[in-house]
Amino acid sequence: MKIGDLEKQSGISAHTLRYYEKSGLLKPSKRGDNNYRHYSNEDLITAKFIKRSKACGFSLAETSSLLAIKTDKSQHVCAEAKAITHNKLQEIEEQIQRLEQMKETLSKLHHYCCGGQESAEFCSIISALEEGE
Amino acid sequence: MKIGDLEKQSGISAHTLRYYEKSGLLKPSKRGDNNYRHYSNEDLITAKFIKRSKACGFSLAETSSLLAIKTDKSQHVCAEAKAITHNKLQEIEEQIQRLEQMKETLSKLHHYCCGGQESAEFCSIISALEEGE
DNA sequence: ATAAACCTTAGAGTATGGTTTAAGGTCAAG
DNA sequence: CTTGACCTTAAACCATACTCTAAGGTTTAT
Ligand SMILES: [Zn+2]
Ligand SMILES: [Zn+2]
Ligand SMILES: [Zn+2]
Ligand SMILES: [Zn+2]
């Protein structure tokens, strides 16, 4: 499979696949005489693995760690995978909390502003930002 | 007030204040003979405005738009401020949804993995990433 | 007088996850 | 045999929001 084929099969652009290679995430199993990248079926699985990992919110670095486990399962233990997942879960929960806090503040601002065509002289959004604690 | 004083009063680092100036967010009202920046009380209010705006999740560009309204209220209308707030609110709600989706997926992965010291051969986290739809 | 603390600038570096460009080599169809 | 599709590389660029560095000028306290 050439890079263009993998692009179609995996939904990851050729550009990005080359970038992933440079980042050590996915090396093609072979290079042809013309130096073209050749990907195996296992490489396709890896590409999809990366895609799912990203969909879970894992960074490329974290994905890299997960891939290391996947690639050599017998040399790794469940605890490692669970720790990575646990950390990400916490991180995401913290992000959600921050965003919920913002959402609440913004909802109030949004609610109290009339949103009309009148001068912003007494706009509650602007005053809240000027004078909030 | 010199930049160090504003740093203390506003809680925004001098570095960042200079960066904000370069970005057009907060220009000191004067420069001394020695070219030092001199900030007024109004500048302090503006600095705090920026800080609150950031705390609401507004980007520097959005903060800049809000500042333009604040600075010249009579030339702006509520509708403008409300539109900016509305967009941000939507954006944040979308982010929360994405994160909630990730959280759900991760929670399942986390729940099913034993997390023990046994080989990752049959780790549910790794297999889910390998074989998920 | 001299040292510490503060100020100035332009520009480079950091982090993330790519995207784009330039300049060119290879392959398959008509 | 040429045209267009596809492949190669290194390196620059994008966005965001800083953060730091280098090299130097100023103020203040002792
Ligand atoms: Zn109004
Ligand atoms: Zn309003
Ligand atoms: Zn297990
Ligand atoms: Zn496991």
Q: How do the helices and strands line up, and which of them pair or pack?
A:
The structure is a homodimer of 133-residue chains.
Chain A: H1 3-10, H2 14-22, E1 30-31, E2 37-38, H3 41-55, H4 60-71, H5 78-112, H6 124-131
Antiparallel strand pairs in A: 1-2
Helix pairs in contact in A: 3-4
Bound molecules: zinc ion (ZN) (4 copies).
The first copy, chain A, binds a DNA duplex (30 and 30 nucleotides) through helix 2.
Pfam family, one (chains A, B): MerR_1
Keywords (chains A, B): Coiled coil, DNA-binding, Transcription, Transcription regulation
Protein name (chains A, B): Zn(2+)-responsive transcriptional regulator
Total number of beta strands of chain A = 2
* Assembly form of the protein: homodimer
Number of helices of chain A: 6
- The fraction of residues in strands of chain A falls at under 5%
Mean pLDDT of chain A equals: 96
Radius of gyration of chain A: 24 Å
Per CATH, which architecture of the largest domain in chain A?
A: Orthogonal Bundle
Poorly predicted parts of chain A: none
Rough outline of chain A: elongated
The SS-based structural class of chain A is mainly alpha
User: What profile does the largest beta sheet of chain A have?
Assistant: 2 strands, antiparallel
Highest-level CATH class of the largest domain in chain A:
Mainly Alpha
Strand adjacency order, main sheet of chain A: 1-2
Largest interface in this structure: A-B, 53 and 53 residues
Distance between the termini of chain A: 60 Å
